[in-house]
Amino acid sequence: EYSCEYGSLKFYALCGVGGVLSCGLTHTAVVPLDLVKCRMQVDPQKYKGIVNGFSVTLKEDGVRGLAKGWAPTFFGYSMQGLCKFGFYEVFKILYGNMLGEENAYLWRTSLYLAASASAEFFADIALAPMEAAKVRIQTQPGYANTLRQAAPKMFAEEGIWAFYKGVAPLWMR
After folding, report:
1. Which residues contact 91 (CB under 8 A, 6 or more apart)?
2. Cα(36)–Cα(42) distance, rounded to whole angstroms?
3. Pure H helices in 66-146
4. CA-CA-CA-CA torsion for 91, 92, 98, 100, nearest 10 degrees?
5. How far from chain centre, in Å, is Cα 151?
6. Which of 111, 112, 115, 135 is nearest to 123 (CA)?
7. What is the pLDDT, as a whole number, of residue 18?
8. Structural domains of the chain in order of their starting residue, each with its CATH number
9. 0.85 exceeded by the pTM?
10. Most buried one in 42, 66, 140, 151, CB count within 10 A?
């Protein structure tokens, strides 16, 4: 009657796959919009608005330029979705078991909020390295055009910290 047992490894895996599909694919689909938004934030004199930002990007980089940062977006948000959806269920069950069945029901809103916040904590750690690479690719002309170029360059210049200095703002978001 059910595709899998609630709380089983298969259940968590299916939740994780749902997160990969819902976060990774949707964020990748809007990369052109995200690219223009990031460029507007970094250089508002050059990228004066959405329409102008698309126009300038197309003029300077062509249609392919609108896809800059697609790989770190796909991998980063897929990992975030995997952790967010999978760990939410892990923490919901863990915290529910700690509270007991009756208290878990009575305090279900707080339980769901705590499970969500706990999952997001780890999901943002998974996202941060790819988000850092994406922003470099999208906003620093000439730095790197691909994830394969950006990641080793970032590591060589700043070490592992280059990939995690944005994690605190992600948590605050």
Report:
1. 114, 115, 116, 118, 119
2. 10
3. 70-99, 101-106, 108-139
4. -170
5. 16
6. 115
7. 96
8. 8-170 (1.50.40.10)
9. yes
10. 151
Residue 155's pLDDT is 98
Q: How many residues does the chain have?
A: 173
Could you tell me which residues come within 8 angstroms of residue 172 by beta carbon, excluding any fewer than 6 positions away?
A: none
Contact status, residue 137 vs residue 146, Cβ threshold 8 Å: yes
Q: Cα(113)–Cα(75) distance, rounded to whole angstroms?
A: 26
pLDDT of residue 47: 97
Contact between 39 and 17 (Cβ < 8 Å): no
What is the distance between the alpha carbons of residues 134 and 143, in angstroms, rounded to a whole number?
A: 11
Please state, in angstroms and as integers, the Cα–Cα distance from residue 89 to each residue in 10, 102, 122, following that order: 12, 18, 13
Per residue in 124-151, pLDDT (tens digit) is 999 999 999 999 999 999 999 999 999 9
| Cα–Cα distance for residue pair 40/1, rounded to 1 Å | 51
pLDDT tens digits, residue range 48-98?
Answer: 999 999 999 999 999 999 999 999 999 999 999 999 999 999 999 999 999
